[in-house]
Design a protein that fits this description.
alpha/beta; two-stranded antiparallel sheet; 28% strand
Length: 176
C-alpha cells in the first residue's frame, strides 16, 4: 500500500484509515478486557490510535501509542481525547525500539510491505524475549509472521473495497 490514498480528491495519510488489523485487534481487546485490565500496554505503529484507545477503554493501567510519524501521534492523541481516555504518545522506530516495562505489546496492521514487516516482526520478537506478551493481527498481509504463531481468535470484518479486494476480510488475532 502506498503512503497516501486519494480519498475525495485529497491525499490522505495511510495511517488515518482504520485498517482491518487495527479493527480486529481493537475488537479483541474490547471483547477480552481481562487481557489488558491493569496492564501496561504499547500499541506499536499506532496510526490513528484505534488499538491504543481500545486498550484504554478495556481498562489498561497505562497505554503508550508509538509511531514513527509525528502526525500519526497527533491523530492518536485526538482519537483518545474524543473517546475520553488517556494515552501517552511516543515517537519511536521499530529498528531499535526499547520501551520501559510493558506487559502487553499490540501491533495491528504492520505487515503491508516487506521492510516494515521485517522490522515489526523483529521488534515483536525482541519484546517477547523481554517477557512481554505480544498480540498482533494477521490480516493476511504477505509479510506477516508465519513461525511460532498461535491464533487466538478470528473475526470476519466489513472493509472498504476502496482499500481491500473484497467487502469483508477474515483477520486472525495471534500471539508469538
Amino acid at each position: 500500500r502506498s503512503q497516501h490514498h486519494d480519498i475525495v480528491g485529497a491525499a490522505t495519510p495511510y495511517w488515518i484509515v482504520a485498517w482491518p488489523g487495527g479493527q480486529g485487534l481493537a475488537r479483541y481487546l474490547l471483547d477480552t478486557p481481562q487481557l489488558v485490565s491493569e496492564k501496561r500496554v504499547i500499541d506499536l505503529g499506532c496510526g490513528n490510535g484505534l488499538v491504543a484507545v481500545a486498550a484504554a477503554i478495556a481498562g489498561a493501567r497505562s497505554v503508550v501509542a508509538m509511531d514513527t510519524d509525528p502526525n500519526a501521534l497527533v491523530c492518536a492523541s485526538e482519537t483518545a481525547r474524543r473517546n475520553n481516555v488517556s494515552i501517552e504518545i511516543e515517537r519511536g522506530d521499530l529498528r531499535n525500539y526499547e520501551p520501559g516495562p510493558v506487559d502487553l505489546v499490540c501491533a495491528g496492521d504492520l505487515w503491508y510491505e516487506r521492510a516494515t514487516g521485517r522490522l515489526a516482526t523483529g521488534c515483536l520478537g525482541r519484546l517477547k524475549q523481554a517477557r512481554s506478551t505480544v498480540l498482533f493481527c494477521d490480516a493476511g498481509r504477505s509479510f506477516r509472521p508465519r513461525s511460532d504463531v498461535v491464533c487466538l481468535e478470528t473475526y470476519r470484518l466489513p472493509v472498504s473495497r476502496e482499500f481491500e479486494s473484497s467487502a469483508t476480510l477474515s483477520v486472525r488475532i495471534c500471539t508469538l
